[in-house]
């Protein structure tokens, strides 16, 4: 249970990312295929995604020494406020005016802004948590002298691409360095 509490932010963050995007997708598909009932999936995704955004902001890790944490936190709060605003307006009009606005161009523009915000927030969070990608194969390491992913013999599977050209083609000795093929 202690593990879940310590990592709650990393569990909650996936809900707004997925559900705010799917809310927009359901509303757009409802317009394209003229299926009014799909708007219900749109507002339900929006509501649960908004609750996830609130939980993500509340459980955000404190005391991180990463310089990007302040920008990430700012965009997370902007995302949360945008999602709350969209949810309150949408459900309010649905309950009090019996009007579904999932197909309204102004609403869809706001939903697109929320999707862009949650996507950028997730991108910043991912940059803080995950190591940079090395397109030459293997993870990028801080050690410039060599090591796994930098030309040294690393753990099995490091330095080799999965898929693409096939295993070992265009690489010398599995070192992770691409070399021109012999002619």
UniProtKB/TrEMBL annotation:
Domain of life: Bacteria
Residues annotated as transmembrane: 12-33, 40-58, 78-96, 108-126
Keyword Ion transport among UniProt keywords: no
Comp. bias intervals (Low complexity): 135-145
Domain DUF2231: 8-131
Biased composition (Gly residues): 146-176
UniProt feature coiled coil, ranges: none
Keywords for this protein: Membrane, Transmembrane, Transmembrane helix
Stretches the record annotates as Disordered: 131-183
Membrane listed as a keyword: yes
InterPro entries documented for this protein: DUF2231_TM
Protein name: DUF2231 domain-containing protein
Organism: Paenibacillus aestuarii
């Amino acid at each position: 249970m202690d593990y879940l509490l310590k990592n709650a932010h990393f569990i909650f963050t996936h809900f707004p990312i997925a559900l705010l995007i799917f809310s927009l997708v359901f509303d757009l598909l409802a317009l394209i295929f003229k299926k009014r009932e799909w708007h219900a999936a749109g507002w339900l995704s929006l509501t649960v995604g908004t609750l996830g955004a609130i939980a993500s902001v509340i459980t955000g890790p404190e005391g991180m020494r990463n310089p990007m944490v302040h920008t990430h936190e700012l965009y997370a709060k902007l995302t949360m406020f945008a999602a709350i605003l969209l949810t309150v307006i949408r459900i309010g009009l649905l309950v009090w005016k019996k009007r579904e606005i999932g197909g309204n161009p102004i609403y869809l523009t706001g939903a697109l802004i929320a999707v862009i915000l949650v996507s950028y927030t997730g991108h910043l969070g991912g940059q803080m948590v995950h190591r940079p990608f090395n397109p030459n194969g293997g993870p990028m390491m801080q050690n410039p002298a060599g090591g796994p992913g930098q030309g040294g013999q690393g753990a099995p599977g490091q330095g080799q691409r999965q898929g693409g050209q096939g295993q070992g083609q265009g690489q010398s000795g599995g070192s992770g360095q691409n070399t021109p093929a012999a002619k």
